[in-house]
Amino acid sequence: MEFITENTIKRATLRFFKAYYRLRPRTKEFLTVSKFDVTTPEGVIVDVYYSFQKPDRTYFIATAEATSYYSKNEIRYRLQKRVLFWDSLALSSLLTAFALTWLYAYRYEVIHTAGLLLTAGACVLGMTVFYLLYRTVAMQFHRYRYIYAVEQFKRYHADEQWVAFGEDVFENFNDKYLRELKNQCIINGFGLVKITKRLEPQVLITPTRHELFHGKRKRLSNLDPMKIMGKIKFKQSEEWWQKIFGRFKKSPDDFDSVLRFQRTYWTQLLIVLLALLLMSVVFVREMARADLVTLDREEYLETIQKIEATTDDEESTYYEVDSAYQVAVDPQTWWA
């Protein structure tokens, strides 16, 4: 079976752009610029680049990511397992820390009642339950379904961005990867066009004309090919500290990988550390508070009255040293 090549899809997409935007207002003195395979120093690769000058002297830019059967991994989602793991761990540790802090604030002597080991085991069990619940539910979230073409579009600004693919990329119209691609294109305002075997474009989704990212994406500076192409910065050898902490960076980082735009998880790691620190503080303070035994006022007064009632007035004089009834020291060694 012969598949549509990526270069064929690029040429078909460019013809589609010329027909689709032919009625858009533009200046006559500025020629339309179209290019294939535009690469920036930041690692962004634009398969199809199309631009013209509008009457207000600003530039309209449309770009496309062309995908064939052999490069289908660019538009098939992959589960971001590392990000999902750290998100689940951060949420579970945070909820467990809040629960333990709430019990401590309302003076539920959990450690004194259940013991140190049992309380620690309950915290681990609670974190595990929260972790599994969130992971099971969150696997369906778009956040954890990484699509290279969509993530690359988020790295730079263009007026309209399209995903173009050959009709032989997906097995059928109900393919789960195609459904997810459609959903993410709709959410982010990207267009979607299918190139048939006759090289005819079929528009599935049109891009939004409203800015959804509100200046969060980087603009391509201008239409100068030298400035657009730039110079690719080759990756240098890593230092020792980069090799140690590199596990927490988005990986890998080279231009050829479709995984280079994955999310980082430094924030989640910080949340986990803060939650563990909070739980440690609660453990230490509650163990320190276990040495203090609070007495009931009524019980204390009744004890004094019983002592007075059983005391003979003719007995030798004695001295009673009064002390605060609220607190009595009762050293505890149950956690040792």
Describe the fold and architecture:
By secondary structure, the chain is of the alpha/beta class. It folds into three domains: 6-77 and 147-233, no CATH class; 79-143 and 266-289; 292-312 and 319-329, no CATH class. 40% of the residues lie in helices and 17% in strands. The protein contains ten helices and twelve strands. The strands form four sheets. A six-stranded mixed β-sheet has the order 1-2-3-7-8-9. Strand 7 (160-166), helix 6 and strand 8 (191-195) form a beta-alpha-beta unit. Helix 2 (81-105) packs across helix 4 and helix 2 packs parallel to helix 9 (266-289). The chain is elongated and about 120 Å long. Residues 222-226, 228-238 and 250-255 have low confidence and may be disordered.
Could you provide a short overview of the structure?
By secondary structure, the protein is α/β, with parallel strands linked by helices. It contains ten helices and twelve strands. The strands form four sheets. A six-stranded mixed sheet has the order 1-2-3-7-8-9. A two-stranded antiparallel sheet has the order 4-5. A two-stranded parallel sheet has the order 6-10.
